[in-house]
Amino acid sequence: PGQGRYLATGGGVSNGVVVYSTNAQTWFQLASGLREPHSIRETVPFTTGAPRYVLTTSGGGIFTSENAQTWTERVSGVTGTLFASAWGPAAGTGAGGAHVVVGASGVILRSVNSGLTWAPAGPVSGVTGTDTFSAVEWIEDRFVAVGSSGLVLTSRNGLDWERYDVGHSNTLSSIAYGSGRVVVTGSTAIRVYRMP
Question: Which of 57, 71, 81, 138 could form a disulfide with 88 if both were Cys (CB 3.0 to 4.6 A apart)?
């Protein structure tokens, strides 16, 4: 949610849309013609004149917008699909915090200027170009990313990441958090972990 409204995105290669609702029941279109969008996230706190929203797409696309209607493409430096993004008040990033984007080919990108420019995170031991990250969230005081082959990574600044051994190699696809526990869904099960 942002500006008192809910935002959602989806669609195909050339007909992706952004829609909004104030009650999660009736929806209206804000933007169209986007390239197969996968996720949309808001910057909090928002600074006037800076991008408020970050949108990720197939083909390595990262777009930013102040109003979720007009979108500007940014240079990501990658060509694979970017599946998810998250914003958090990460350590050492100042009041603007950090955006993190994850996707195919083991890609993790970070921006500390509201999505205007992006840089790859440092190499992570055990993560290769054949891995895919499907979800990332800011949880308590760190980013948590999950993906193929049982990948679970955490980072306090979005740049330096640590991998955790979760004891299996199933694909992990989504993350939720509550009561000090991280809930991860995957290809064969739902797993619950305590924050380290």
Answer: 138
Coil, strand or helix: which one is 131?
Answer: coil
CA dihedral 124, 187, 142, 83 (to 10 degrees): 80
CA distance 155 to 6: 27
Q: Output the pLDDT for position 49.
A: 66
Average pLDDT, the chain: 86
Q: At a CB cut-off of 8 Å and minimum separation 6, what does 58 contact?
A: 13, 35, 36, 38, 81, 82
Does the pLDDT at position 188 exceed 80?
no
CB 7 within 8 A of CB 24: no
Please write the tens of the pLDDT for every residue from 84-96: 999 998 888 877 7
Number of H helices, E strands in the chain: 0, 18
Residue whose pair of structure tokens reads 């009041």 in the numeric block: 95
The alpha carbons of the chain give a radius of gyration, in whole angstroms, of 16
Quickly tell me which residue has 């993350």 as its tokens.
175
